[in-house]
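Recap slide: HAD family hydrolase, sequence and predicted structure.
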Amino acid sequence: MNGIPVCGPEGPIRATAASQESPPAVRAVLFDFSGTLFQIATYAGRIRAALGRPVDDGAMDGLLDGLEAGLSDPEVIEAQRARDVSAKAHRHAFTTWYASVPELAPVADVLYGQLQAPEQWVPYADTGSTLDQLTCSGIALGVVSDVGWDLRATFAHHGLDRHFSSWVHSFEHHTEKPDPLLFQHACRELGVDPAETLMVGDNPAKDGGAVGAGLRSYVLPAGAAPGHIRGLDAVLRLTGLAGP
């Protein structure tokens, strides 16, 4: 695999033959999971299911306000540190957040269990068609996700696991994106050079950090609702499978 040139504030210090040529064609695409290919069911629906009773809209707004406020709770913030380096840390981070809302504390483990339930996740409307086109064009695909459990069952539940030849879960490597180790491991499993690989995600710091490992990166805008169009047609353009 090619080395990454040393850069100063304005760019590479030494010009190389590689930097003077067009970038190589994309032979592989790595995808993040949540917020990129899938989105979990709404918090309101999950909370009603976890509580096992009706919750009117006013009461639900209060619970959702509590979750939002919990994101600023010092204990919750501390629990998020190194959240994705182990299954234990991941569970602790999420259950601590859920439990920051007193009414949800008794069902914090139930809410966490929903995360691991394949049926709770919804592929975006353009996920399947995008993966189909990439696979049919011979582009190798992998998943690189900061997560606390194995994602293959979720992809299989939706008939999408067949597209992927590499699965890199952060908790299995005891580190998190943007650690180059995760991206490099996926490239080795797919048999491609990082320079021939595109990372697609929704977090500029984590998924965009793939650039530090020698990959190209595309970061999707935030805010897509479950089941809606995600804008993955951009991936087809970046791989040369669709026009500009």
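The longest helix spans residues 57-70.
The two ends are 29 Å apart (CA to CA).
(End of recap.)
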